[in-house]
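Ticket #4471: structure output looks truncated?

Reporter: J.K.
Steps to reproduce: submitted the chain below (254 residues) through the standard prediction queue, then opened the result file.
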Amino acid sequence: MEPVTPEMDQKQFWNLRAKTFPRYSPEPDNYEAGMLDLARSIGADFKGKTILDVGCGAGMYTIRLAKEGKFVTGLDISEAMLAANREDAEKENLKNVEYVNMAWLEFEPRRDYDLLFCSMTPALGSPEGKLKLLSFQKAQIVYFGFTAPMKSQVITELFEASGIKPKNHPTTADQKTFLEERGIKYRVVGSSGRWEKKLSKDDFLLNLSTSLTFHGGSLGQIDLESFSERFSDGQGSYLENTDYHVEVIVWENN
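Returned output as attached by the reporter:
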């Protein structure tokens, strides 16, 4: 595990977060199953497709896509995320997944893709990142994004206590504006809910320290041990609830 450093880039941040990041789970009615159903409801078609999973993370969608599609490339900047993803794919005995450890803007495809899958990835936050999506001609694009910043009680209180202004993250409004300016028609559907997570104390503290440092704070600004206790359940677990509002956007490239 990498140490938390005062100057943290995207790669180190996601490597550190990989330990507690959502992984593949086979339940038929969980959050990710519901999100894929939403995508299907507005025309997404994963069956038998060659799919590029942009910013695939630890694999909460990659493995589901591989079970439905013909072939999946999982692309991510974080080696630790890909290691977790690959481990679960091997447990599922999947032979139709490859992994590429690379930034989105550096990626050069070696095959044609029928569909690009993009779930909550910061890789598409820049104009260049969005434009690259359009370079995959005739591909269907399935995009999951937030309509507003996530509302985590833990992170909100952490930043308030530390006097930190969180970084702005792109929302689906940015993506829709980008498409509308280019005359690209899309379909959209939304969903809201709450994620509930239980973590060990060590993992909870790791998430606090990485979030604090990545957003420009200092580990000396606040006593994280004392701060964390307000979220303890008294039985060794630490609770984080996050309210989310997301949209699924689907379109076809020309």
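Triage note (M.O.): checked the attachment and the full token line is present. The longest helix spans residues 201-214.
Status: closed, working as intended.
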